[in-house]
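Explain this fold:

***
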Amino acid sequence: MASDNKDIRALDELFNEVGTYRNSTDLKELFMFIKRFPKIAPYNAFLLHIQKPGSQYVASAPTWKQEFNRTIKPGARPLVMLKPFGPVDFVFELEDTMGEDPFPDELLHPFQTEGVLSSNSFNNLILNLSRDNISYSESDHGTQSAGFIQKTGKGTYGLVVNKNHSTEVKFSTIAHELGHLYCGHLGTPNEKWWPNRSNIMDSSIREFEAESVAWLVCQRHGLNAPSASYLSSYLNTNAPVPSISLETILKAARMIEEMAQKRMRPRKI
């Protein structure tokens, strides 16, 4: 996604200085909103929530016409999203369109069937680990041990997952551990890849960020992750949210989603 990091960090300023989403109820609403748009990058879904929290489905004017035989209502206000390798895209929400054809219900409820992960998503994620010098292995652990990630050298990492768990639980575990990595908790070999936030010593911040990344990734894949119970118990309390980096969470979730979508080229040093 083409965007200047200084512009994107405005999200953390909004979170920390203005107080938007610092309340757990508000953050839960945001996460639930982002979940409903699995085909839109998490950061773009956040932008939609800022502009129009009740959005059900969005598309460009040409897409509305070509795919759904719907036109834009006169005077409708477009919503702005960041565009890959470009400035912005303009999209319109369902209620700002009109047409005689019924709108597909499955697009409003993308997770009618939950709990099954495609083998392609899991295999792509595993194969793409090597691009970030992450070695992957599975070990015979007890059911209460899901996995861990650790630094094994300069810019190299080892990710170990419990082989006795289902593919879906393994996927969730990998998303959680990569959440730690891509949120910068283990440092970084290159600041252009992900930030170095190894100076964050508060374990509650680290875990909240990693659990949030895993929840977003899994929920947007139609999976109920173990992190759901952790976040629900916290976000339902209406308590203040720890001093997390919302920007970093959304970017980390996007990185993992891209890894699960397709084979990616090795990073350039």
Q: What stands out?
A: Strands lie at 58-59, 71-72, 79-82, 88-93, 97-98, 134-139, 147-153, 156-162. DSSP finds eleven helices and eight strands in the chain. The first helix runs from residue 5 to 8. The chain has a mean pLDDT of 86.
